[in-house]
Prior knowledge:
By secondary structure, this protein is α/β, with parallel strands linked by helices. It has a single domain (8-121), classed as Rossmann fold (3-Layer(aba) Sandwich), CATH 3.40.50.2300. Helices cover 42% and strands 19% of the residues. The chain has helices at residues 16-28, 39-49, 65-74, 92-100, 113-122, and strands at 8-12, 32-36, 53-57, 83-87, 105-108. It has a five-stranded parallel β-sheet with strand order 2-1-3-4-5, sandwiched between helices. Helix 2 (39-49) runs parallel beside helix 3. The longest helix is centred in the first third of the chain and has 13 residues, at 16-28. The chain is globular.
Amino acid sequence: xxxxxxxxxxxxxxxxxxxxxxxxxxxxxxxxxxxxxxxxxxxxxxxxxxxxxxxxxxxxxxxxxxxxxxxxxxxxxxxxxxxxxxxxxxxxxxxxxxxxxxxxxxxxxxxxxxxxxxxxxxxxxx
Length: 126
């Protein structure tokens, strides 16, 4: 598809295996991937890279994903960029609590590849 621009996804994940899995799935499906290991690194990457979507782990070193998301949502650098929580906690109450913290969506780990791809694509109108 000539002229189609790739969509850039920022993956904020400190677990190397999870990061590799998510990155490889996204790249295999035509997305550009930028990575960050911490919440503070994510804030810097958003300003520098202007991703179209952010996948944010909740349990990160230095600054957790909820704090990083609140900081991103309060600034101008993240206007219009959906932030999706990426976490191992999938209990209904946890999902609702996480969404109430300002996240635009929620993906539970371990990820199910087909559901994951479909969910990500829905943010790009595919």
